[in-house]
Amino acid sequence: MLGYILKRAISLTVSLCLASIIIFSVVEIAPGDPASFMLGINAQEDTIAALRAELGLDQDKLSRYFSWVSGMIKGDFGTSYTYRSPVSDMIKERIWVSLPLALYALLISTFIAFPAGIYAATQRGKAGDAAVMGATQFGIAIPNFWFAMILVVIFALKLRWFSAGGFVEWENGILLSLKSLTLPAIALALPQASILSRVMRSALIETLSEDYIRTARAKGFGKKAVIWRHALRNALIPVLTIIGLQFSFLMAGAIIIEQVFFLPGLGRLVFQAITQRDLIVVESVVMLLVFAVITVNFIVDVAYAVVDPRLRRRV
Amino acid sequence: MFQSKKIIAAGAFALFAGAGLSLSAQSDITVAMQLEPPHLDPTSAAAGAIDSVLYSNVFEGLTRFASDGSIIAGLAESWDISGDGTVYTFKLRSGVNFHDGSLMDANDVKFSLDRARAEDSTNAQKALFSGITDVAVVDNTTVKVSLDKPNGSFLFNMAWGDAVIVAPESIEGIKNNPVGTGAFTFKNWVQGDRIELSRNPNYWGAKPALENVTFKFISDPTAAFAAVMAQDVDVFTGFPAPENLPQFEADPRFQVLEGSTEGETILSTNNKMPPLDNVKVRKAIAHAIDRQAIIDGAMFGYGTPIGTHFAPHNPDYVDLTGNSNYDPKLSKKLLAEAGLSDGFTTTLKLPPPSYARRGGEIIASQLRAVGIETEISNLEWAQWLEQVFRGKDYGLTIVSHTEPMDIGIYARPDYYFQYDNPEFQSLMTELNGTTDPAKRSSMLKKAQRIISDDYVNGYLFELAFTTVANAKVRGLWKNAPTQATDLTGVSWAD
Question: Phi, psi (5° rounding) for residue B321?
């Protein structure tokens, strides 16, 4: 077991190192100089040089890479070129928008997908099944930014139940904050809910054809009881895997949705940083996301090994 | 599971709880704009968004732009110019305080000007200060600025946002906590979302009617439309979706202000790249362009045609659009004279704004009609600056030059369109040394004619400045003589 964890930990470290090299090089070779972007078209050459020196851009790439990495290990993500404030502070501020938004969307998607998937599975081949499948097809096909605009038109412009966008900070009341995240979360959740409903349906259908279900039915359990007591639990395994995967999709999808609803989240930060060539912000935020994904995978790997002893032995 | 149920319940509750929240006191205002300032120091970045928030509201200079673009007194209440035009003695207003309570005096002026022209200065418009040889403090309220030669636009230069007066005590934190002398003090900046200002109770001038000001940043044009329609914001300056303006005009809840800017939108041409180095070819391009079609197609009718690099609302403007009227036949003839009767191919590199992206498509088709093929590539600003502006690796590009009174750029042979005309250069030198208004006026007119006759660039239109606002808001600037959202005179009706 220990050997297995060690091996996984080494692979985690190697992945992180590789990711940092790839991120740094890709961002650095993108054309455009942050200093000349900031100073615009009337700037004199000596002014641009002065700003480059102030930002530390005059150092060579290798030493900038190492100071970036060593800073990150110490928890220092550097200072934004444009905002001139510490990147870690900016991330901390923004994550309180993006993370709750992703979780909110995940909840909505789960709460839509579970009943829809279960219903479709029990109605397999009937009209109810066809209706759910048709609706999910629609949900997957609709781009979420377009759906977001439709939500704004209906709920903000016509009914005036919601603001057209913007975020109310948590200090002003959790309900108000959640309200301001509701339309974006619904827009984000729709495609995910559709995918999840389909997964839920097929997982349940597959489980329902297992021998032990037939046995349970033979023992005299009603159809509902079989679904709730036996089938659902076993069908949940693939569904939970998909939910885990969807979380990173939700974080990424937020880049567009945050634009449509002008939310001050991580997605908007990265978007602005890219256009302004605020390289250090782009590098650090992307690295943080990569770190999150790799670490989650590591934990999942270890968890699998704990649950399933066969995995341990195989290594 | 239980907890998540609770959150959903909370969400559902929120759904019905607070309809119509936008009740704000009538002394508060929310102003939206597209771009967020990168930081809050107008003296060390080119970003117009910084001035859009802070100019005149938080920071003031010795002189300033009035809403009609004229130069009026700012922190200097008066000035004397020496007979030879090289020494400006500014008399400062007395009793002006910075927002941190410290007194604004001659030392602050000296500090600000010296900082801007220093060797390690990061002022984006350092050229504005290049003629200054010395800044001397005469007494607390008197500053003497010496120039190497007479400069007729010196007072104009001092009105720029890049020349505002800052204090040495607060310069360290200026990028996140700007301390100026203006009618509003900086309160809060939620990055990515908004900047809040509040009334400066100790302001030296007329007290503003507004108490609290919130600037909100909404970059997406569709989101901008929705935010105004839902009345989440009271004012949107530089509204990014001209196609939606008629809808606001028809709605009694809103007013639409259509004003002018200092943005000459031009088809910039690489004057050193064959065959564009041939004036006949450039003339052919100019005659191939139907300006009105571009204004209608790309800007939904908002914009004024121009025939030279000068703002039409300026009293010295000469209408030279006839010099390059839409005449495809003449255009083809000129190409044939230049030995290019089969046409040619060049690049058309387009930065992100819609005037460039939409306008570029239209220009490409107009040029194709006379036999000129363009390879369009869409660039981000950072790329554009590197490839086109600094690298001069382009044939044609479309860009709006938004700096006020910037015809002087044609005197710089290393500028990205690489126009090198000694006659024009000496005219500009002469202009800079002239302070007599009548003489300056005739020189400016001559300058406009020279670049129009040389067909340096394709002159398209003056960018319009459109503001959508709540119908009850009074006192907004209609025009944008500089990038500013001056709220000192803004109030609510009733």
Answer: -65, -25
Category of B405 on φ-ψ map: left (φ > 0), alpha (ψ -120 to 50) or beta: left
Burial of B264 (0-12, 13-18, 19+ CB in 10 A): buried
Kindly determine whether residue B15 and residue A50, on different chains, have CB atoms separated by under 8 Å: no
Q: Which residues are within 8 A (CB) of A311 and not within 5 positions of it... i.e. 6 or more apart?
A: A4, A304, A305
For B403, the closest of A34, A42, A44 (CB atoms) is: A42
Q: How many residues does chain A have?
A: 315
Q: What is the pLDDT along chain A (315 residues), one digit of tens a residue?
A: 778 888 888 988 999 999 999 999 988 877 778 888 888 877 888 888 888 888 888 888 888 899 889 988 888 888 888 888 889 988 888 989 988 998 899 999 999 999 999 999 888 889 989 999 999 999 999 988 899 999 999 999 999 899 888 899 899 889 999 999 999 999 999 989 999 999 999 988 888 888 888 888 888 888 788 888 778 877 777 777 777 777 777 777 788 899 899 999 988 888 888 888 888 899 998 888 888 878 877 877 777 677 666 666 654
CA-based nearest residue in chain A for residue B406: A42
For residue B378, the chain A residues in CB contact (below 8 A) are: none
Residue in A32, A93, A165 closest to B386 by CB: A32
Instruction: Give how far A138 is from chain B: nearest CA, Å.
Output: 23
Contact between residue B293 and residue B423 where contact means Cβ atoms under 8 Å apart: no
Residue A33 to residue B385, Cβ atoms within 8 A: yes
Cis peptide leading into residue B328 (ω within 30°): no
pTM for the full predicted model: 0.83
Q: Which domains does chain A have, with CATH numbers?
A: 91-275 (1.10.3720.10)
Cβ–Cβ gap A175/B216 under 8 Å: no
Structure-token match 């037939």, residue found:
A214
Q: Does A50 touch chain B (CB under 8 A)?
A: yes
**Closest-CA residue to B100 (of B161, B208, B174):** B174
Instruction: Tell if the CB–CB gap between A179 and B192 is shorter than 8 Å.
Output: no
Contact: B383, A111; criterion CB under 8 Å:
no
ipTM of model: 0.79
Taking the C-alpha atoms of residue B120 and residue B116, their distance in angstroms, rounded to an integer, is: 9
The answer for B397, left when phi > 0, alpha when psi is -120 to 50, beta otherwise, is beta
Cross-chain residue pair A264–B191, CB shorter than 8 Å: yes
- CB-based contacts of B88: which residues, under 8 Å, 6+ apart? B79, B80, B81, B82, B144, B145, B147, B154, B155
Closest to B337 measured CA to CA, from B420, B279, B269: B279
State the best of A48, A85, A87, A163 to mutate against chain B, taking most chain B CBs within 10 Å: A163
